[in-house]
Write a structure and sequence with these properties.
496 residues; alpha+beta; D-Maltodextrin-Binding Protein, domain 2; Dipeptide-binding Protein, domain 1; Dipeptide-binding Protein, domain 3; 6-stranded mixed sheet; 14 helices; 21 strands; 26% helix; globular
Length: 496
């Protein structure tokens, strides 16, 4: 779900000797690669945690799904060979791939699919898409056929079933996936040096032995932008998907590297705790939104790599409407709204910021902007684990900056216990209509209404759609350009 970074340890900065020529480094590693990651995941079970960093390591590599989301956003078969959808979009019949085994030798079949989906929707489940699974019933017709009955229409279900929350797990090993993930994918976990690196190695028992071209993939966790650049230049990291934007200029003119700029479905927001006074007053939330110059935030937080948004939706997504004019940058209006709400200035608020540069750098800009309307913001910098437990888990915050990276996450505003604390019967009704409308034209109209409602309610401070750069050595092939989801499709990677 969320994009974060952890602190770089000394171990993570250990570099390949500088005397080794770049060409020799690449030549000696044709069967292996080192990828940089800004964040270290808290665990490796995407069905139990909300951090996007989990999927970046395990999705499609160790753990697989029925469907696969490709770089262009299309959906193709993976563990399901094919499927049929009923005319009312409520019944999905999946024909499963035969001869597939889990890495512990257990068979993949219709029973494991049913187990996985039942587990995801269980009352005790911590799957962030729990509601989706609670609305479906999985039936094992025979060993290789699964029927999914959906209570609600979800036109994006095939996409959802390709996301990391929908991975198929093996019943005997499911509970230990956070530390020892067992899947059906081409790679298995070799080692995890907490705070530094994680290694995946090719699984020789994979159904298609030639699928993975690389025998070994090392992930190194490097949050600091300067350290990210140094690791690439020193040769100890071969490719850095979703690298810090501020390092891009120094690699654009370097012939030894390639810079790939792609789009995303991520939404970077100033999260409001709608349950806390005075943020429970829509006029205060609108005032804060009006005090923010989105273009200045994009420059400060993302070095210009972003597009302004006015709601929890991005250009390019189905049914997108431009809502940036609903709460435009207007300092005078912001001051009037605070006065109307009876807020006496200076108003003191706390902004809790996770480690990513977009959050810390963007926080500096927003603190300065809110000061102009009499809001004094105290910044509290926290580590990723603290953010997950305190801000996201315990809802202990006033303001925060975070990127929500899932493509179809508008429904989070209909969750009564979500960390924003936003509650609107009007939105809930609207979202129920969206979920149950089969007509694409009518659904797009309703999606537009939902975007406008969130913008008018100033449910959060909507900032920008980020662009995520990938910096890699010239010889690395198969890296995704666009990022409809945050995944590293290791089977696609090779050296030229």
């Amino acid at each position: 779900m969320l994009k974060r970074r952890t602190l770089l340890t000394t171990a993570a900065m250990a570099a390949v000797p500088f005397a080794l020529p770049h060409a020799a480094l690449a030549q000696g590693r044709k069967d292996s690669i080192v990828l940089g990651m800004a964040l270290e995941p808290p665990g490796l079970d995407p069905t139990a945690g909300a951090a996007a960093a989990i999927a970046e390591i395990v999705q499609y590599n160790v753990l697989e799904t029925l469907t696969k989301i490709n770089a262009d956003g299309s959906v193709t078969p993976l563990l399901a060979e094919s499927w049929e959808v009923s005319p009312d979009l409520k019944t999905y019949t999946f024909k499963l791939r035969r001869g597939v085994k889990f890495q512990n030798g257990e068979p993949f079949n219709a029973q494991t699919v049913k187990f996985s989906f039942d587990r995801a929707g269980d009352a005790k489940s911590t799957n962030k898409d729990k509601r989706t699974f609670q609305n479906m019933t999985a039936q094992a017709v025979d060993e290789h056929t699964v029927v999914v009955l959906n209570k609600e229409i979800d036109p994006n279900l095939l996409f959802v079933l390709g996301q990391a929350t929908s991975v198929i797990v093996e019943p005997k090993s499911a509970e230990s996936n956070a530390t020892k993930p067992i899947g059906t994918g081409p790679y298995k976990l070799e080692s995890w040096n907490k705070g530094s690196s994680l290694v995946l190695t090719k699984w020789e028992g994979f159904r298609n032995p030639g699928a993975a071209k690389l025998a070994k993939v090392t992930f190194r966790f490097i949050s600091d932008p300067a350290a990210q650049a140094a690791s690439l230049l020193a040769g100890d990291v071969d490719a850095f998907p979703r690298a810090a934007t501020r390092i891009v200029p120094q690699f654009k003119s370097n012939p030894q590297f390639q810079v790939i700029l792609g789009g995303s479905r991520a939404k970077t927001i100033l999260a409001f705790n709608n349950k806390r006074k005075p943020l429970d007053d829509v006029r205060v939330r609108r005032a804060i939104s009006a005090a923010i110059d989105r273009k200045a935030v994009i420059e400060g937080a993302a070095d210009g790599f972003g597009v302004p948004i006015g709601s929890h939706y991005v250009p390019g997504a189905e049914g997108y409407v431009d809502t940036t004019g609903i709460n435009p940058f207007n300092v005078d209006k912001a001051k009037k709204l605070l006065a109307e709400a009876g807020v006496k200035t200076p108003l003191e608020l706390t902004m809790t910021l996770p480690p990513p540069p977009y959050a810390r750098q963007g926080g500096e800009v927003i603190v300065a902007e809110l000061a102009k309307i009499g809001i004094v913001v105290k910044v509290q910098n926290v580590e990723w684990a603290q953010w997950l437990s305190g801000t996201y888990g315990n809802k202990d915050y006033d303001l925060s900056i975070v990127s929500h990276v899932e493509p179809f996450d508008l429904g989070n505003y209909a969750k009564p216990d979500y960390y924003w604390g936003y509650q609107s019967k009007e939105f809930d009704t609207l979202f129920d209509k969206i979920k149950s409308t089969a007509s694409a034209t009518e659904r797009d109209k309703l999606l537009g209404d939902a975007q406008r409602l969130l913008a008018n309610d100033a449910a959060n401070g909507f900032l920008f759609q980020p662009q995520f750069p990938t910096v890699a050595k010239k010889g690395v092939k198969g890296l995704w350009k666009d990022m409809p989801i945050f995944a590293n499709d290791l089977s696609a990677l090779s050296w030229s």
